[in-house]
Specification:
four-stranded parallel sheet, single chain, alpha/beta, Rossmann fold, 9 helices, globular
């Protein structure tokens, strides 16, 4: 049986070390060697070549030295970008406002678009009353496709996602043609620290390892 590609099962980061002796049978660096070489050449000579170079430069300059906010600022500067767009969740509007002020203080033109753009009721997307957070009340639907469209029309050169829900972020990314990065993801239960269940998978969140447990 062909084993699925799972780099998490590799005993060591062999590709990082450029050591390919005794690699596991599922190693994508070997299984897809020709395809990887092809896309790597296209990346190096394509429209994202500068992004690839700047990303690697930034990693070398900022690794374990700068926060994600600072890295985002540095990334935009290295690319020579001026106009940045924030696509944020309405529940994190305060954080978005602070972030916008920080970016402006560094000389960027800042756009910011809320997830409830357009005031579309959830019913328009097929959500039933009993499926709402608060049944019996009006609830506006999140509209990430519209967020992506507005930021594109406003001339954003780099979009930054801030707190969009799981799935809504997927819709945004699928609908944007603008370079996009993520500042933070929303996780109310962990105070927006979604790796917490991973770090605590052998204790408090052990239930996540049990099939069928909710």
């Amino acid at each position: 049986m062909k084993k699925f590609v799972r780099c998490t099962d590799c005993a060591a980061p062999l590709c990082y070390l450029h050591v390919f002796d005794h690699v596991p049978a599922f190693c994508p660096s070997i299984r897809y060697e020709e395809e990887i070489s092809d896309v790597s050449r296209k990346l190096a000579g394509g429209e994202l070549a500068e992004v690839a170079r700047v990303s690697s430069e930034g990693a070398g300059a900022n690794y374990c030295r700068k926060t994600r906010v600072e890295e985002t600022i540095d990334f935009a500067r290295r690319l020579g970008l001026k106009r940045l767009g924030i696509a944020f969740c309405i529940g994190l509007r305060r954080e978005a406002a602070v972030f916008a002020n920080i970016l402006e203080s560094h000389g960027f033109d800042v756009l910011a678009v809320c997830c409830k753009l357009g005031g579309v009721p959830k019913e328009d997307f097929g959500v039933k009353n009993e499926e709402k957070i608060n049944p019996g009340t009006y609830e506006g639907a999140c509209n990430p496709a519209a967020q992506a469209k507005v930021l594109e029309r406003e001339g954003s050169q780099l979009n930054v996602l801030l707190g969009l829900c799981v799935g809504h972020d997927s819709i945004f990314i699928a609908n944007t043609r603008v370079l996009t990065t993520v500042l933070a993801t929303k996780d109310r239960v962990t105070g927006h620290c979604p790796l917490q269940p991973i770090y605590l998978a052998d204790s408090y969140y052990g239930r996540l390892m049990t099939v069928g447990v909710r």
